[in-house]
Amino acid sequence: MPRRACTLHRSGAARLPCGRTLAALLCAALVLPAAARAEGWSVDATAATDKVLRGLSLTEGTPSIGVDAAYYWNSGFYADASLARAKPVPADSATGLFVGGLGYLQGGAGDWRTQYGWTHYGYTDAALSSFDFDDFRVTEAYRGTIFVSAGGSPHARMVDAQGHSASGPVFSADSVVRIPLSFGWSADGSLGYFGLQRPYHTGFAYGSLGVTWQIGQFQFDTSLIGTSPGAKRRFGSTADNRLVADCVWRF
Questions:
Q1: Which residue range is the domain that position 219 belongs to?
Q2: What is the number of alpha carbons within 13 Å of residue 35 lying toward its C-beta?
Q3: Which stretch is the leader sequence (predicted)?
Q4: Which of 16, 25, 67, 186 could bridge 1 with an S-S bond, Cβ 3.0-4.6 Å?
Q5: Which CATH number covers residue 87?
């Protein structure tokens, strides 16, 4: 949010960590509301052909591996942290991206669930600390099949294809539809918008179509991710349409 389409962890939570394929790539580190869950840990490892956040590659189209851990309380609160390979500046070498967050999953009767979340994105290389940012987001989920989220960052810095650096408030809105199929398969689609009016006086749309196969502790995702022409003009190959695949191992 994304998590892959809507991966069900042992706790029953559907999560969308950053850098995974399918609709998950749109919602980086997003924990999607679901029905009641058991208190406890959820830990997994991921190997992906790329790491994408809101339609933009964070690894210049190269593979990324990472680990993720989350803890859920019966009260509805949760904490999440992950570490993965990233390459935020094309001219620089790869580094680690730490993503940590806190949030609250609102319960209640009916088919809808609401999540309020804060997520911090930080790079392990101190020289890249100016690219760190915080994201505040609200998500609505319907029966674990339809997800809508909106949020933003009060201050985010980016570098475009020409090497121009700009910073300022940004926002994004995302929608995800997941369709369960048979034999562990599911299909999903997503559509989002990334508003960069303050830093770049522009914005762009992105989306994905993909499939997921889940068997035992493993999950395999494949997704075609696309961005609008405005993204390609501003961010070059980082915003190219791409096919992304990953494997997730849940402990």
A1: 7-250
A2: 7
A3: 1-38
A4: 16
A5: 2.40.160.40
